[in-house]
Design brief:
The protein is mainly beta. The chain has one helix spanning 2-16; strands at residues 30-32, 37-38, 42-48, 54-59, 62-68, 74-81, 85-95, 99-100, 107-111, 119-122, 127-130, 134-140, 146-149, 152-156, 161-167, 171-180, 186-195. 8% of the residues lie in helices and 52% in strands. β13 and β14 (152-156) form a beta hairpin. It is rod-shaped, with a radius of gyration of 31 Å.
Length: 197
Amino acid sequence: LLVKFSILLGDLKKNTQTTTQKVLPPMTPRIVLPFEATDSATIAVSGFGEKGTVVELLKNDVSVGKTEVTENGEFNFSDILLESGENLFSAISISDKSGSSEPSKPVAVNFDDQAPTLTMINPSEDKLTVDYADFDVVGQTEKDARVTINGRIAMVDDTGKFKFKYQLTSGDNSLEVVVRDLAGNEMRKTVTIKYDI
């Protein structure tokens, strides 16, 4: 009788016990941006998140909108207005059942619509006559800028200084210096160097 009673008590405990299930927050979304800088005032921000959730996009810690994650785990925000300078983007996944995720790792985009600086050191004037064929074209621009001289790439150091050895031909030599920054802005300057033997 005691054995039957203890079995009955055990069954009663099983039936009255409620199982609590841990509900995990949604996965943190990931923002994907194809560039670090742009000369466009608006951009599209996309990325990946947990399907069935809503992603909230933050720019400089201020919400700029929400969108649902598609069936293949993607999200997209179009026509996001940028502020001049650095814009920091992060995102949060929100679920009705399990709350919200941690903010994603911030991704920076620099909005720059100004042409890069270009100071010619050698030659410092627009027209020059020399009596030697090996000519060093030297100038100063922004660091991380790309410099080409007549379509050939010049090396730019960490301070933005560039130097390019150019082989002059007899007579007038027209050199086009093109500086392009990370955002795609350009500055062009043409100089003429006359090689007089």
